[in-house]
Amino acid sequence: MLKVIVQAVVAGSQVVGRAFTRALQQEWAASQQAAKRQGGGKQGTKSAVADLKKGLTIQEAKQILNVSDLNDVEKIQKNYDHLFAVNEKSKGGSFYLQSKVYRAKERIDEEIQDKMQKERSQFEEEQSSPPKT
Fold this sequence. Notes:
It is built from five helices and no strands. The protein is mainly alpha-helical.
């Protein structure tokens, strides 16, 4: 009887061990893919920090506000205003959803600001370099 119990415990622990190992391998692969998608270097790190700070990726923020083009600032603002008003607590909306809409807009604004800053620094760099002859 004791032998059967020991065998069951050993078999169960082997199954759990294999499942845990497989889960770790999958998580490692997923984190590697996410790192590749973020890009390497300074820009990738900056994007990852922004994702952590706001709790949203730029893709999630675009989905929440139902926009695909970050250059269409008017549509972003229109969708934000609509979703924020619809989820007003006094109108029976959800504060949780309203805060998600707010964070999505905040994340998109940060991405637009980073993009503009990058373009500005490239422009200044081009202006400061001597003309090639």
